[in-house]
Amino acid sequence: MSVTATVPRRRRRLGIAAGASLLALAVSGCSGLGRTAVGPVTYTTGREAVLQVNSPSVRGCHRIAPAGAHEVENGTLVDVILYRTRDCTGGRTTYVPTRFSDVTAPGSGPWRSYSFVH
């Protein structure tokens, strides 16, 4: 084996090791606790006020204004689940995919919280 053949192999191995390290760092950064749903969640309350939350956290339960919402637009890059309760529990949920909106059925009551599918 010649010396010239050994040098390119070492560089290649170092390059692969560096690439793997950078990939691991990037993946761990994307899965951090501070991850947000890029884009707005916009909702209209029973009093016709339009409220917008920009890039909320994908973790946890998000409460909607006390009056609740009868129309929700998911402008984020993550799907949303709407709840009739203030604590993201119970049945009668509504699934709103990314870049879609939904309106409550007459007499069904407002949505009071939402969470993200992640």
UniProtKB/TrEMBL annotation:
Residues 1-26 form the signal peptide. Keywords: Signal. This is Lipoprotein. The lineage of its organism: Bacteria, Bacillati, Actinomycetota, Actinomycetes, Kitasatosporales.
